[in-house]
TrEMBL record:
This is ATPase BadF/BadG/BcrA/BcrD type domain-containing protein. The lineage of its organism: Bacteria, Bacillati, Actinomycetota, Actinomycetes, Micrococcales. It comes from the Bacteria. PANTHER family: N-ACETYL-D-GLUCOSAMINE KINASE (PTHR43190). InterPro entries: ATPase_BadF, ATPase_NBD, Euk-type_GlcNAc_Kinase. Residues 44-273 form the ATPase BadF/BadG/BcrA/BcrD type domain.
């Protein structure tokens, strides 16, 4: 079995797995940043390759799934350049993290997957001519139901409580102050940061904890997130995508989000079979690399590029 490197670059962190005759080794790294030029991928890829002690010629193929590939970069070139700088001119597959997540969660079958972490995207595919992406527009214009979306609404509610515009979000205000400091410092912490989406998403554990204590505002935010994710998944499931779906991402660690999404999807599309994920985005990236080596992978630019 040839050695392949699977890489996942996301707003919550980065991961890589080397799989070869000797087994598998994994490492993790920092989250993907964005600056004025777009995605900052090279330092992440270099660090992951260094952690795995890889050199040019050590792997037969690389597959990278990256968030923001379609909206925050001019195509896959920034990721291709990062791989080339770290490993030389190795055969490389670059895909949106929506693609790697869908391939991993469905185990390579056709269907649709909703992916949510710091951001959110849904992807539906028939594994032929249709690769339908829904949302993934970033924390300012979209990413409905994501960690940054939840965090933004939680902080909005906390600031309304701080201002006296509401009186039912005291728990959110206290939790946000404990995490971020006094409210007057929040705009500076968020607006000036290149990783502001990740900062917003850092509040999610507090929202989930408060929901577990039946804090009404926190529960309502998480239920809204579940409904938004069901809307994205429903849109991705339009024909010719078959009625098979799954999910992936840390936000689904919240029972409220997952159950709300399940209920809303069942109401909108009772014919859809919703299954737990079979694998992760890293599994999906590895599967894409293997398919490339086997000659069984058709490019679907801009979502899926082979070099």
């Amino acid at each position: 079995m040839s050695a392949v490197l699977a890489v996942d670059l996301g707003g919550s962190g980065s991961r890589a797995r080397l799989t070869g005759p000797g087994g598998a080794r994994e490492t993790a790294g920092d989250r993907l940043r964005v600056d004025a030029r777009g995605l900052v991928a090279a330092p992440l890829v270099a660090a992951l390759v260094a952690d795995l002690a890889l050199r040019p010629g050590d792997v037969a193929a690389v597959a990278v799934g990256s968030s923001g590939l379609l909206t925050l970069a001019d195509g896959p070139q920034v990721v291709l350049d990062a791989v080339r700088a770290a490993l030389g001119d190795v055969p490389t597959v670059v895909a949106s993290d929506a693609v790697t997540s869908a391939v991993g969660a469905l185990g390579g079958r056709a269907g649709a997957v909703v992916l949510t972490g710091t951001g959110s995207t849904a992807l539906g595919t028939d594994l032929a001519g249709c690769w339908r992406k829904v949302d993934g527009w970033g924390h300012v214009l979209g990413d409905a139901g994501s960690g940054s979306w939840i965090g933004m609404r939680a902080l909005e509610a906390a600031l309304e409580q701080h201002d006296g515009r509401r009186s039912d979000a005291g728990g959110l205000l206290a939790a946000a102050v404990a995490r971020l400091g006094e409210p007057e410092s929040w705009p500076r912490q968020i607006y000036t940061r290149e990783d502001r989406a990740g900062v917003l998403a850092s509040v999610v554990p507090d929202v989930v904890a408060l929901a577990g204590q039946d804090e009404d505002v926190a529960v309502a935010i998480l239920r809204r997130a579940g409904h938004e994710l069901a809307r994205s998944l429903t849109a991705a499931l339009r024909p010719p995508v078959p009625p098979l779906a799954s999910w992936t991402g840390g936000i689904f660690g919240s029972r409220v989000v997952l159950e709300t999404m399940r209920e809303a999807l069942a109401e909108a599309r009772p014919d859809v079979v919703l299954e737990p994920p079979r694998g992760t985005s890293l599994d999906g990236a590895e599967l894409l690399a293997r398919r490339w080596l086997a000659g069984d992978l058709t490019p679907a630019e801009p979502l899926l590029t082979v070099h």
